[in-house]
Write a structure and sequence with these properties.
The complex is a heterodimer. Chain A is an alpha/beta fold. Chain A has helices at residues 52-59, 82-92, 108-118, 123-136, 152-164, 182-197, 209-212; strands at residues 8-19, 26-37, 41-45, 67-72, 75-76, 93-96, 170-174, 201-206, 217-222, 225-231. In chain A, the strands form two sheets. In chain A, strands 6-7-8-3-9-10 form a six-stranded mixed beta sheet, sandwiched between helices. Chain A has a four-stranded antiparallel beta sheet with strand order 2-1-4-5, covered by helices on one side. In chain B, 53% of the residues lie in helices and 17% in strands. Classes of the chains: A alpha/beta, B alpha+beta.
Chain lengths: 253, 405
């Protein structure tokens, strides 16, 4: 069995990040090497202070490393200016935050559509893609509602719709179930599993082991270093807890 | 991001806090309305002055006994007091000495009480004059006739009344042909002067006009001098020449200690001075109004800074999903401009409505330039004061903005 050459969607090479300088410098990440392949579903685990937020910010191109290289879909992010970083965030990364972070007073559909507005996608195409994305997260019947009129789970599903609408290289989720009850958490994780089945690369940051079990690979971060990196499910296999079914069935729950 | 999208998002921002947006707009509204109204008031009073100049007749110079001021050697002293007489009138009428003078109209003033039946009224002005008065003073009759040369030479007991006098004596009845008594002497009403309104000091319709001859016979007496001589120049360009000629003709007979005992009032130039004062006044008013516009702009800036702080997290989200610096800058700048455009349009509406009413006795006359200027300055102010807050928003670092609670 010959292995095909690995295709890194995301590759961190000797990445360090420190805040401050001299004696008071805080080393949030120390010499991290991490590669994520296309189609993988990776959970990054760690206690608070382990550097996982810093890692998330670096992967999400919200911050740049102090040293080391970061390649995202073949692009050396360290070389980019503000304008190009905005472009990369727009096209290559789909963010899902713990606190949903939808734009207030803006309908779910408009929120989902927003990245395409910044990508200068023409209105007609934009609307069609937004409708598709909102359908993929099973929120069609609630799409005209404002975030304040949606439950936490529904808001997070809208946020996922927004994350996938640009067909990004990776979906980056930071504690996506942190604010959700068990049922909503299940739904959200099933959506991630489904997206992964559809071929999307997912990096999920969490501190809960049972959430991490949904991923195919679990990376532990301790004190800014990778302590363990364990693959639980083959890259080409289905995500471990994936339940085939129609997501829109659970949408009205 | 397209302009339509920017405007849409900006509208959402403006509508998300209606009261605050409205109060912010009010600053610009008041500024714009103030500029429009105050310029209109200044302009309105200039227009009123212009009308007064025209109603006086632009080509006339008025000569009155007495000097300027109250000092020694001028009209303030009884000894130097002079009387203007019909002899002076004749001298001024001589075309060889005064080629630029078209007509000379003597005016004698007195005070009378007019009665008609039971009605009694004292006009504020009673004058005796000659037929040329009507043209020199631009006082045509509305009904009947003015004093004719025959009536003047025949010492006819006839009178032309102003509309104020007519309404006081006759109410709505027709005064023509009626006989009224002036200080007990019967005069026939031959004409009613066309209404002239106020000249700013007195009601020009509160007047009774009789022939000079009759007036000197019966009311003022021949020995009392004329109250003024109205000199009409042949054209508006010759007014100054006519004034100089009149002065040189009168000076030999009416001076003491080398200074003239009469004064020459070129009323048109006097009012032109008033008009230019008015212009300065208008500019000052506009400057004060412009300051309020500036204050309104600072209000916009203040609110935009608050908005940016409030929406820090939103800015972070937008940046995280790919908004560029220019997108954020555009969004907040559009919002600031939108506030000032809406405020400015409200201001134009308020200014135009406000200018329909009389303000301190002046009917404002709206100037198109002031509307355009006020609105565009208002918008420019919004743009200018929006730059700093918008730039601040655009410069926020996404991680810090996302972490903001």
């Amino acid at each position: 069995m010959s292995r095909p050459r690995r295709r890194w969607m995301l590759a961190l090479r000797g990445v360090s990040k420190s805040y401050g300088s001299g004696d008071i410098a805080v080393h949030a990440l120390r010499d991290v090497d991490l590669g994520v392949e296309r189609g993988d579903f990776v959970a990054i685990m760690g206690a608070s202070g382990s550097g996982k937020s810093t890692l998330m910010n670096l992967i999400g191109c919200l911050d740049t490393p102090t040293s080391g290289r970061y390649l995202l879909d073949g692009i050396d992010v360290g070389q980019l200016d503000d304008f190009q970083l905005a472009y990369v965030r727009n096209r290559k990364i789909g963010f899902v935050f713990q606190s949903y972070n939808l734009i207030p007073r803006t309908s779910a559909l408009r929120n989902v559509e927003l990245p395409l507005i910044y990508a200068r996608v023409p209105k007609h195409e934009r609307r069609q893609r937004a409708l598709d994305a909102i359908k993929a997260v099973g929120l069609t019947d609630r799409m005209e509602h404002l975030p304040s009129e949606l439950s936490g789970g529904q808001q997070q599903r809208a946020a996922i719709g927004r994350a996938i609408i640009t067909e990004p290289a990776i979906v980056l989720a930071d504690e996506p179930t942190g604010n959700l009850d068990t049922v909503s958490s299940q739904e959200v994780l099933q959506i991630f599993s489904r997206l992964n089945v559809a071929g999307r690369t997912i990096v999920m940051i969490t501190h809960e082991a049972e959430i991490a079990e949904y991923a195919k690979r679990i990376v532990h971060l301790v004190d800014g270093r990778i302590a363990s990196d364990r693959r639980t499910t083959a890259l080409n296999a289905m995500p471990p807890k994936f339940e085939p079914g129609d997501v829109s069935r659970s949408a009205s729950a | 991001m397209s302009i339509a999208e920017s405007v849409r998002i900006a509208f959402q921002g403006v509508l998300s806090n209606r009261l605050r947006s409205l109060l912010t707009m009010l600053g610009i509204t008041i500024g714009v309305a103030a500029v429009i109204i105050l310029v209109a008031v200044g302009n309105g009073s200039a227009v009123a002055v212009q009308q007064r100049i025209e109603s006086l007749g632009t080509n006339v110079v008025s000569i009155q006994p007495g000097g300027f001021g109250f000092g020694r050697g001028s009209g303030g002293f009884q000894s130097s007091f002079t009387q203007l007489t019909t002899k002076d009138v004749k001298a001024l009428q001589d075309p060889t000495g005064a080629p630029d003078i078209k007509s000379v109209t003597p005016v004698a003033s007195g005070s009378v009480t007019a009665t008609f039946g039971a009605a009694s009224y004292s006009p504020s002005q009673f004058i005796g004059t000659t037929p040329s008065y009507a043209e020199a003073r631009k006082s045509p009759v509305e009904a009947g006739t003015f004093i004719t040369p025959q009536e003047e030479s025949q010492h006819a007991r006839v009178v032309v009344l102003g509309t104020t006098v007519v309404s006081n004596l006759f109410g709505s009845a027709d005064p023509l042909g009626q006989t009224i008594k002036l200080n007990g002497i019967g005069f026939t009403v031959i004409g009613v002067q066309a209404p002239k309104g106020t000249n700013g000091i007195q009601d020009q319709d509160d007047i009774a006009i009789a022939p000079l001859t009759t007036t000197q016979d019966l009311i003022t007496g021949v020995t009392t001098g004329l109250s003024q001589i109205i000199v009409e120049a042949k054209s508006s360009h010759q007014v100054n020449a006519a004034e100089a000629e009149a002065t040189s003709i009168l000076t030999p007979n009416h001076s003491s200690n080398g200074s003239a005992n009469f004064r020459v009032l070129n009323q048109a130039s006097l009012l032109q001075t008033t008009a230019s004062t008015n212009h300065v006044f208008t500019v000052l008013l506009a400057a004060v109004a412009a300051i309020s516009l500036l204050v309104g702009g600072i209000g916009v800036m203040n609110i935009m800074l608050v908005t940016v702080t409030e929406r820090t997290r939103e800015i972070g989200i937008r940046k995280a999903i790919g908004a560029r610096r220019a997108d954020i800058l555009g969004q907040f700048l559009t919002e600031a401009v939108l506030l000032s455009v809406l405020g400015g349009l409200l201001g134009v509406a308020a200014g135009l409505i406000g200018s329909r009413f009389k303000i301190v006795g002046v009917q404002p006359v709206v100037q198109t330039y002031s509307v355009v200027l006020a609105l565009s300055v208002g918008i420019a102010v919004g743009l200018f004061f929006g730059i700093y807050p918008a730039n601040r928003a655009a410069s926020l670092r996404p991680i810090e903005a996302l972490r903001y609670e």
